[in-house]
Amino acid sequence: xxxxxxxxxxxxxxxxxxxxxxxxxxxxxxxxxxxxxxxxxxxxxxxxxxxxxxxxxxxxxxxxxxxxxxxxxxxxxxxxxxxxxxxxxxxxxxxxxxxxxxxxxxxxxxxxxxxxxxxxxxxxxxxxxxxxxxxxxxxxxxxxxxxxxxxxxxxxxxxxxxxxxxxxxxxxxxxxxxxxxxxxxxxxxxxxxxxxxxxxxxxxxxxxxxxxxxxxxxxxx
Length: 221
Hints:
CATH class: Alpha Beta
Strand order of the largest sheet: 1-2-3-4
Helix content: 25-40%
Subcellular location: Cytoplasm
CATH topology: Ubiquitin Conjugating Enzyme
Keywords: ATP-binding, Cytoplasm, Nucleotide-binding, Transferase, Ubl conjugation, Ubl conjugation pathway
Strand content: 5-15%
EC number: 2.3.2.23
Oligomer: single chain
Distance between the termini: 32 Å
Organism: Lophotis ruficrista
Number of helices: 7
Number of strands: 6
Structural class: alpha+beta
Mean pLDDT: 82
Number of domains: 1
Protein name: E2 ubiquitin-conjugating enzyme
């Protein structure tokens, strides 16, 4: 299920560039060509831009815009225009996506910051040991998801986000001490500004399963 491609609309030039990058990409990015960014669609006003987004998520987008305007008036602007615009587009695309609406993951902004996201992986491969561990975790602690934190810098999307596993404590699956995830696509060498955040979320989910990640129950206390 996680390996199914999401819809993408790209120019021929972008496809060629993507193919060239893929030749040099490490193993853990081999599926990302299915998830690359869609071209910015021509917006015929706000109605088109917000089409397919639920009311609750539209309210979140409006709150972000309001906070940004207020910060600008107060001279307390954080981040960069480039990163802010891209992150707004990423969030809008996520709110429209089938995987988000299908409950594969959820996104929450930490303290309403566009540069700090908590992402819950709500579904992993049902045939995996990790899925079984999460079911046991649900019985024991009432939690059956993996919480990731995405931290973005001012130069996003040209630099990758920093991603770590917050909870539960995992072993294997390329997860290091402190929750950092060892994946080439999250390094400057393996990253491409064409990757969407949803593609990264889905790839991390697949990589945790592929790397046989397991919940360390004793370490979660």
